[in-house]
User: Fold these one by one.
Assistant:
Number 1:
Amino acid sequence: MPSFGDIANRRNKKKPRKSRVTNQDRWILNLIDDATDGGFFTTSRGKVFYPSALGNPCDRALYNDYNAVPKNDPITPQTQRKFNYGHDLEDRVDKYLHKMGVVQARELVVKTEDPPISGRIDFIIKHPKEGVAIVELKSIHDSGWEALTDSPKPEHFVQIQLYMNMQGIDYGVVLYENKNDQKYKAFKLTVDRQFWADIKTRCNRIMALNAPPENCTGERYCRCGGKRSEKK
């Protein structure tokens, strides 16, 4: 099973050089960008952890979220369109699951007080073999799709383990849709109580800090603002 060390040690491979695109109608492109301007990432309300944030191995980022450190990062039009794609995907899958008559709940808010964690489960469904199951829905591009062979991405593993433990459900599925061809992968997981204990330990450690850690230990896209640790 993925650990926080696994997440921290992941490194992105060098991407191939992109071909130059010409003969573009910039007015249309700018028009679409203006229509999908997402503003800025909002600051966390503080004093609460979110499952999506707990999937980040960077303690500095988690400290910033928990303590509502202001964020000044803009949401680019492309990022906003990615968010929109995710919402559209959830609506489509909701129709599929409702057509099969298996949906018990959608967008169910779950919370714990010790430690303070708040999240939202995509779906709870009736499963023919497992009784009740949590479904966490994700979209992924082609290269990421090929890398998924026997388990979900580590940050998604963290999310669904949190939901299973918080809701008291023993079985979950991370369901991926390939953005390129709409194929699906459904990775099955059972609840891990030790992982839940480790998460609580991490949260308690972050809450006890009086200042953020100096270094960033997340992926290259982590927005914590800390010093980047040198790669080995």
Number 2:
Amino acid sequence: MSAATRPLVIGVGNRWRGDDGVGPMVADALARLDDDAGAGDVGGADPGVVDVVALDGEPARLVAAWDGRSHVVVIDAIVAGDRPGTIHRVDELERLPSPTPEASSHGGGVAAAIGLGRALGRLPERLVVIGVEPARADHGDGLSPAVAVAVDDVVRIVAEEVGVRCA
């Protein structure tokens, strides 16, 4: 399977800013699903079913990562005003919260990257954003209890989305 046809999962966030680390934490969990798969690849029986990366959310890096991909799933902390740990699935990208300081702690983040990708004609054919409502995005590692509980559900949702079998 070529890189263009293999799904890409991007965990966005900063591990040292509380719940903003949910994207990389989910990416780590997906990468552990298949110990026999190569670095960055995860999959049921066959390594290379999906590529997994963790990025800081800088819009140009996100666009560069998904450029040429047909199916991308992005996981990030998203502030939408719901209770902490609420999982949001956005595949109608116009509904993604606007890039505000409250919605992202990493320079415009996913919404800005989608706008940039749209302007440059560099959006994937299918782009799904899975967001988790944070309780806190302060300094220090570790997720809040509500977001930590959501991680397993997010891993399952993303695995189903990209065709990875969960044990």
Number 3:
Amino acid sequence: MYDYYLGGGHNLEVDRVAADKAIALMPDIVAVSRANRAFLQRAVRAILDLGVRQFLDLGSGIPTVGHVHEIAQAVDPASRVAYVDTDQVAVAHTRRLLEGVSGVSITRADLTDPPSVLFARGVAELLDFGEPIAVIATAVMHFVPDDRDPHGILNTYRDATVPGSMLVFSYGAYDATRPENMDGLKDLYQKSTSHPLQRRTDAQIAALLDGWHLLHPGLVHANMWRPDNPTLVPSRASMLAALASH
């Protein structure tokens, strides 16, 4: 569904049907998704500017439409990216897309089980945990329920990396001006995916980042995070985003 929102070509009919239903409920979900992808690209470039060349992308989906390895390796071909996703179809598609691409891996694992991620061959053998790593958790933590301890999960990844490591974070924000649309969207994801949306307040979303140091401008709407052209930025996008350091 996310690939479809981005205008990618790696999606199935069942994805497109569900995505069109989501768009009918929340027409700006396409703009929000693309604002999130643009934020990710800006954050990756900011991380590269800070000298970090390793990325662990949690819940990566299908790496298409300007994904992490394309952005990072365009700046430094030696950059390494370990993609992780639990969806079998997404992993299979990713494996085909990455065939012949060096410095990149795909692992099927559940981000809510950090040891299964951190000790997986595609992660442990590609990334050097003695050097800083950028952990990417964009548009995924809103699928993690409270009973899986999302804050503790992020802390586990933080503790597994050395000082100087980073976190790229985004989370779908609740739009209180359209409660019926938000309820409909939650119901749709509940029926259409194995990972239903978890609604949290802005304060609860911010609390997930306790223990990390937020870089300027902090936790803001994705399109407001260091925009390339501030004069063209609309007032908000319903996706909170931040870049944080260890």
Number 4:
Amino acid sequence: MPLNTGWNLISLPLSLADTSLLSVMSSVGDDNWTSVWSYDETGWHRYDKEGPSFLNDLYIMDAGSGYWINMIADDTLVITGSLPEPTDITLREDWNLAGYNSLESMATLTALASLGDNWTSVWTYDETGWHRYDKEGPPFLNDLTEMGSGNGYWINMTSADIWTI
């Protein structure tokens, strides 16, 4: 998966044999990235090569989670693995940084159908900027029409649920 200079919001659509962060990032040139960040119910987690190592608390990268990767130069992240089993992702009430556990792209509303009315908006970020689908906002602003493999997503939930892709 291509990683562009600057911030990249990604996910791992496959389950990997070795989920250690440094193993996952091994295909990316060591001088081409500086940090990887994730967010869960306990807050932000990071692995920052340039910061104090005692602040690093992110050592594993799993399918189903979203990750921010800060790149100094363009590069490619190569991953090999198998489809996650199951592909269910637990989402809590409020904001969730989640991955997309599928190799098949899907229309946003179809991809989120298992969540019923328990979500309000979903956002992603790529080299062109932010994209969103907000059920409560003006429809003409909804430019996130499809969810795809390798992308990370911020999903705002009104109550906890299981996302089945």
